[in-house]
Specification:
With 186 residues, this protein is α+β, with helices and mostly antiparallel strands. It is 65% helix and 6% strand. It is built from 8 helices and 4 strands, in the order ααααααββββαα. 10% of the residues are buried.
């Protein structure tokens, strides 16, 4: 019961933060600090090199895991690698996205491209919701036990049948249009 209360408080805090961010005027960081561009480009370059080396390491580890003759050992080591290094890869990719967003000036047009839509769909739904768990409380109805499953960047509620990707979730959670939700997730 105490865990559910804590989860409710966390979700309430996250909702308030999202509302605050939506009302806060957006200013471009590089407009305020143009000298930061060089630093950000260097940092982006270092993160991208790190991502390439980490992918190579993970690929080698997965090859090693597949050498096991026992199916359980293959599965076990693949899961260990996914959890340990997969989470690290996701964090590195997130940092790279942050740098790219800071370095790319926000386009003022109302047009969105297919690449923008794909980038919005690729945004991790767990980051959007603010959790690292696979089951959370459904945003579509009130409930006491988590029934909203987060897998492969989609959400599905086993209780009410509500399903969404990152764009649909943001549309429903904040009452945005499709274009507005895609722009927020860029």
């Amino acid at each position: 019961m105490k865990n559910l209360e804590c989860l409710g408080e966390i979700l309430e805090e996250k909702e308030l933060e999202i509302e605050w961010r939506a009302m806060t005027p957006q200013t471009e960081s590089l407009e305020v600090f143009p000298e930061a561009r060089e630093y950000l480009l260097d940092r982006l370059n270092r993160w991208e090199k790190y991502l390439v080396s980490m992918r190579r390491i993970v690929r080698n580890q997965m090859d090693w895991a597949c050498l096991h003759k026992d199916e359980f050992n293959k599965w076990f080591w693949a899961e260990v690698i996914k959890i340990d290094d997969g989470n690290l890869l996701n964090l590195v990719a997130k940092e790279i996205r942050k740098m790219e967003i800071l370095l790319t000036p926000d386009e003022k047009s109302s047009e969105i491209t297919d690449a923008d839509i794909q980038r919005a769909r690729d945004y991790p739904i767990k980051d959007l919701i603010g959790t690292d768990k696979d089951f959370v409380l459904c945003p579509n109805h009130t409930e006491k036990h988590p029934s909203f499953c987060l897998k492969k960047n989609f959400g599905y509620c086993f209780s009410c049948g509500y399903s969404c990707d990152t764009i649909k979730y943001l549309q429903d959670a904040q009452g945005l249009s499709f274009v507005e939700a895609v722009k927020r997730l860029r």
